[in-house]
Write a structure and sequence with these properties.
With 146 residues, the chain is of the alpha+beta class. The chain contains four helices and seven strands, in the order E-H-H-E-E-E-H-E-H-E-E. It has one domain (2-144): 3-Layer(aba) Sandwich (Aminopeptidase), CATH 3.40.630. 29% of the residues lie in helices and 33% in strands. The longest helix is centred in the middle third of the chain and has 15 residues, at 82-96. The radius of gyration is 14 Å and the shape is globular.
Length: 146
């Protein structure tokens, strides 16, 4: 498995993963927008043939704060450590770019994701009411990097 930065040619494949994994709706152009804002914050994990099977997309909220906006691994590749590898690599990239604080939002019902983030040091800090397009709440999670 290999982790690399996003390439525009990945867009269609990543959009497939996004649509099958996340319950919010996004436009495929979203990847281009995030890439333009912070190219180093867009990571892709590929299988041994080079085919993308997961991604992490983020933005810089300010000079020292980054937000994970989208994070998904194709269903057939879950529970293989790829999400952990992506998150660990993202933390390295963030630290090399002067980031000291990372935040993200997750649905309260997504206990698998909440527990995953907790294992990686994230702490629930706030409930955001009516956060999602369907009116659902979100749990904001944060981590401070040393």
């Amino acid at each position: 498995m290999m982790i690399r930065e996003y390439d525009e040619r990945d867009s269609g494949r990543l959009y497939e993963i996004l649509c099958s994994s996340l319950d919010e709706s996004y436009r495929e152009e979203t990847f281009f927008c995030f890439h333009e804002l912070w190219p180093r914050g867009q990571l892709v994990v590929c299988d041994f043939s080079g085919r993308p099977v997961g991604f992490l997309s983020s933005s810089k909220a300010d000079g020292s704060h980054a937000r994970i906006l989208m994070f998904a691994v194709e269903r057939n590749y879950r529970s293989m450590g790829l999400g952990s590898k992506l998150l660990i690599q993202f933390r390295r990239v963030a630290m090399m770019n002067g980031i000291t604080h990372i935040s993200l939002e997750v649905r309260p019902s997504n206990m698998r994701a909440i527990n995953f983030y907790k294992r990686h040091g994230f702490v629930p800090t706030e409930v955001l009411k009516n956060y999602y397009n369907d009116g659902g709440d979100a749990v904001k999670m944060d981590i401070l990097l040393n």
